[in-house]
Amino acid sequence: MIYMLDTANLEAIKKAVDLYPIVGVTTNPTIIAKENRPLRDIILDIRELIGSERMLHAQVVADTAEVMLEEAKALRKLDPEIIVKVPVTPQGIKAMKLISAEGIRITATAILTPQQALMAAMAGAEFLAPYVNRLDNICGDGTQVAAEMAHLIDMYNLDAKVLAASFKNVQQVHEVAKAGVQSVTIAPDVFDQLLVHPLTDSGVAGFMSDWHNAYGDGKTVLDLL
Ligand code: E4P
């Protein structure tokens, strides 16, 4: 599983990069706007935090393919490794053809149907981001859409990966993982929840208590070897 963090918050990124096997950070215009800072600073600061080996995804916002292409080039100028997110509108699909021809990596975003994903992959998108919770919220089936996308990628032998997105709980992440998606991007609060279990906490507390009763408070394995 390829894990990414869906945020532009530096504290959250710092914490997650330290603790978890995160290989990328994704943003969208709403996530960027929340930070209320210049876009340039946000991108440069995230890059500094995550290093050159992790992925950073940032979205274009223009409504024509030509201007999206210019936005993509400007983002690449700022961060040569950036992966540009493009929505799966008709202009977005046109932009994907233009942007991929420039050798810029693309994540197709705002995907709600497998057919949008298939066309985005054919237009040059490397990652395909279905919005799982937004589908579940309208009585759709986000997992099913993500699973069908993964199936289409296999069936047509496409050079693309599902990047399942828009999660509001751990069960949604679990369902897409079981469905075989290659990657997920998760907001920090849900990411933290992936590890939470009260029996894990009580189990670890029991180990610590038995250990310290036998060997003394604060003793680690290092003290005893
Ligand atoms: C992914 O591309 C989006 O940035 C994001 O996951 C959307 O999540 P939301 O539905 O919680 O806004």
UniProtKB/TrEMBL annotation:
SUPFAM superfamilies membership: Aldolase
NCBIfam families noted in UniProt: PRK12656.1
Family: Belongs to the transaldolase family. Type 3A subfamily.
Compartment(s): Cytoplasm
Gene3D superfamilies (UniProt xref): Aldolase class I (3.20.20.70)
Any one of the GO BP annotations: ketone catabolic process
UniProt catalytic activity: beta-D-fructose 6-phosphate = dihydroxyacetone + D-glyceraldehyde 3-phosphate
Keyword Transferase carried by entry: yes
UniProt-recorded Gene Ontology molecular function terms: fructose 6-phosphate aldolase activity; transaldolase activity
Any single Gene Ontology cellular-component annotation: cytoplasm
Residues of the signal peptide: none
Origin species: Vibrio maritimus
The protein, known as: Transaldolase
Keywords, in A-Z order: Cytoplasm, Schiff base, Transferase
Main location: cytoplasm
One Pfam assignment: TAL_FSA
